[in-house]
Design a protein that fits this description.
Number of strands: 4
Number of helices: 7
Strand order of the largest sheet: 1-2-3-4
Strand content: 5-15%
Order of helices and strands: HHHHHHEEEEH
Helix content: 40-55%
Shape: elongated
Largest sheet: 4 strands, antiparallel
Distance between the termini: 43 Å
Length: about 200
């Protein structure tokens, strides 16, 4: 059940990434999208086409055959350039919002139909760096030592930094799929690095 806006947990839910985040288009929906785009582009091209403007200034409705003229199609191309610019701007904004809500470059790339590396090149600031991660560190105290479990949104993986009771320090790479896995690995490290007098706790 979806939470209403006045629910105390509403914003927590909004800030929690759902997986999967979307379903694929139905083929008929894509056809409809193309039709809407063509109608919009043709309407704008008619406004800026010099040929169409000449007909309207003469008090005439541009004949249907005008659209096959090369100059009219140049007007279409100019409109599509503006459409592409608007799409790129909106895509960058969507990628940044998703990235700052926890989406990795892998997920951004999948949504755009490119690789993780291509997504990172296209939107270099979309996913916060390790020090700017969205998830709060998860504290852990065990066997006399302490650790903190972190999420790396760029790698979409978890890592930990730990200090054992015997003074040993470790910071692992973001290789754990879940926070539970990272917590288990950090716990194992703390158990392996206890002081003699706290061994076995």
């Amino acid at each position: 059940m979806e939470k209403p806006k006045d629910d105390p947990e509403f914003w927590t839910d909004i800030n929690t990434l759902r997986d999967p985040a979307y379903t694929e288009f139905d083929p008929d929906d894509l056809i409809g999208l193309h039709d809407i785009l063509k109608e919009t582009v043709d309407g704008l091209a008619s406004v800026i086409s010099v040929r169409d403007q000449a007909y309207r200034k003469a008090g005439q409705e541009p004949p249907p055959g005008v659209v096959i003229s090369g100059d009219y199609q140049l007007a279409v191309l100019h409109v599509l350039r503006q459409v592409d610019r608007a799409v790129q701007e909106q895509a960058a904004n969507a990628a940044k919002i998703a990235g700052h809500q926890g989406a990795s470059y892998t997920k951004l790339g999948a949504a755009w139909g490119v690789t993780r590396q291509s997504a990172r090149t296209k939107w270099p600031d979309a996913v916060p760096a390790r020090g700017q991660q969205v998830h709060e560190p998860i504290p852990l105290a065990y066997a006399g030592g302490t650790a903190a479990i972190h999420h790396d949104p760029e790698a979409d993986a978890w890592w930990y930094i730990a200090n054992g009771a015997d003074g040993r320090h470790e910071e692992c790479e973001p290789v754990h799929t879940t926070s539970t896995d990272a917590t288990a690995a950090a716990t194992a490290f703390l158990i392996a690095h206890t002081k003699q007098d706290v061994a076995g706790l």
